[in-house]
Amino acid sequence: MGNQTAHKIPDDPGVVQPSDDSEINWQERRLGRTLLKTYRTTLDLYDILPNDNQPRITPKEDLELQRQIEANEGIFEPLLLEPHPEHSGKYRIVDGDRRWTNSKILVEVQKKDQFRSIPVEITNRVLEDDERLRVWVYIHRQRKEWDRKEKEGVAYRLVDLVGRASAANILGITVRALDKLVEIYQLSEKLGDVKDPGASITWAREIKNLNKKLVTPTILDAIVKKVNEEKITNSKDIRELRKILRDPVAKAEFLSDESTIKSSLEKAAPSTPDKPEGLAGEVSALVDSIRRHSWTTLAELKGDKATLSKIEEAEKTLSELRKQLERD
Question: Could you tell me the domains of the chain?
Answer without folding.
Answer: 6-127 (3.90.1530.10), 144-209 (no CATH), 272-323 (no CATH)
